[in-house]
């Protein structure tokens, strides 16, 4: 059937019936009809393509198509990027952009589909095309064309068009006399020179002429029919920046939003969409559509493979949202969105960021249970604080705000997300909540009021900065914790900066954190029982460190599980040293752990790791493996090697500490 259609359209390649390429269908040269022309259907086996959906044979068929000579409009789009008026991030995208546009081919913009923007071209009976924005404009062009050919002859046209698609006529500019309108489904079967009203065979009126019917003796009539093809999707969407704002009938209320700002899209449609928007906006309105194009990678599976139903590695976002929440999925993607990086999506990472949301929720509820939001008045400015802990956390909020703004300005969305993650989870939910507990239990009303005000402000600022990354949970907490004048999505982005950092409080509390973390790390490496309180010794204790310890002694003892601190002239035998400023600190562990047993355990684990590292190094450093193995396999091997080398370094550090003990 397809072959017959091609033949009927006159599009088949023809040859003599005695052409030997016809195989069994060939006619002998001496037989009758040998010189007849027949379609050339070669008798040879070929790779036969079938449609994915229809499952029928796909046959090549030459048809008339509309093309854009893209080479004539590509110049300004190239210049805009070369001159820096439009920037593509990452820079590697510019190379792809230049390669495509510098080697551009004529662009076929017509498609034979059911849906789309119909080609704005009408044909008369002779096949003359008239390109126009609407039917009446097409008629105007047809009148001008035929008047030049038939001066003095009255013209009239019939239009096969849905009346809904025909705009109101401006009688002052265009006389519709002699124009007939037909519904798009009407069969056109009439004498174009008939002056009477057009009727069906049963006498019912089919259409009525606009104005007087033409004079049959001095008239020329033709029917205008619109091209049935539709525009290529990328041609239509190429006009998106202005089309969505009402162009060509836009006014100041919408045109003021053009040019737009930043386009964020996938790298795979840089040429299909981005380059065409650049070409078409510059050709139509002579302006760039956006000043920055940010290209992100495809979302792949945890091994870096492209998701495919066939492979079975598709992660359905709707299922993920049902299981982990939209915020967890959104934050995961943001945290992986490094410039030029690959987005490797795994359920483990999503689950981790769901836990992050739970952490924020619990910290907010902790504040609520401690009266932080009772009578709370939200404010943009930081509260006045005297307590060291409160002055420190206010500075940390300011530092996080500055870092987040810098990352967002540079389009480093992963740095912004991960920085906020470290700040909110580490500084706010872990350290500040613990440091603030004694203050919230204070009998001093001034200290209590200050800490409540500070904690409320800190949580508010955390929700504000997290909102672009986790909009749902932050909006819920914002609305539920206190009475607000407006929704969080309409909130003002904070403007304070590093002027809020108190150098003294910052140094003191960060020293306290470093000491606690050092003690915890040594305990973990030495396998000290978790609930056991151990002594701490120090030599060369500086006055600043001594004062900081005295002010925070209760916190340090509680959080590091330290029994007491003793100043000594020299460490006793069997001490694990800590790398903390302000003195030389040590944990006397010789009588607490079995050093020999710990050494044996670590040496055995290190030996096992060494074998794994040797094998992985051999693979990664083998050129044949790197060249022949799939990219994701090579990357996985490198990641495993780096992970094991890091683990080996930590174990060797622990072994060195044991060597100090004896």
Quick overview:
The protein has 662 residues and is an alpha/beta fold. It contains 21 helices and 22 strands.
Key terms for this structure?
45% helix, elongated, 662 residues, five-stranded mixed sheet, 21 helices, four-stranded mixed sheet
Provide structural commentary.
- The protein has 662 residues and is an alpha/beta fold.
- Helix content is 45%, strand content 13%.
- The chain is built from 21 helices and 22 strands.
- The strands form eight sheets. It has a five-stranded mixed β-sheet with strand order 8-7-13-9-10, with helices on one face. Strands 20-19-22-21 form a four-stranded mixed β-sheet.
- Strand 11 and strand 12 form a beta hairpin.
- Mean pLDDT is 85; it is low at 186-218.
Strand order of the largest sheet: 8-7-13-9-10
Low-confidence stretches: 186-218
Helix content: 40-55%
The tally of helices reads 21
How much of the polypeptide forms β-strand, as a percent range?
5-15%
- Tell me the number of strands: 22
As a whole number of angstroms, the C-alpha radius of gyration is 38 Å
Calculate the mean pLDDT score and round it.
Answer: 85
Largest beta-sheet characterization: 5 strands, mixed
Classify the secondary structure makeup into a structural class: alpha/beta
Global outline: elongated
Give the termini separation: 90 Å
List the helices and strands and how they pair.
Blueprint: H1 2-8, E1 14-16, E2 37-39, E3 67-68, H2 74-82, E4 87-89, H3 92-102, E5 107-108, E6 110-111, E7 121-123, E8 129-131, H4 135-149, E9 154-160, E10 179-182, E11 198-199, E12 205-207, E13 219-226, E14 230-231, H5 233-238, H6 240-243, H7 252-255, E15 262-266, H8 270-284, E16 292-296, E17 299-301, H9 317-324, H10 326-336, E18 343-345, H11 347-369, H12 388-409, H13 413-440, H14 445-466, H15 471-481, H16 503-525, E19 534-539, H17 543-551, H18 553-560, E20 562-567, E21 575-578, E22 584-588, H19 595-620, H20 623-628, H21 631-661
Parallel strand pairs: 4-16, 9-10, 9-13, 15-16, 17-18, 19-20
Antiparallel strand pairs: 1-2, 3-5, 6-14, 7-8, 7-13, 11-12, 19-22, 21-22
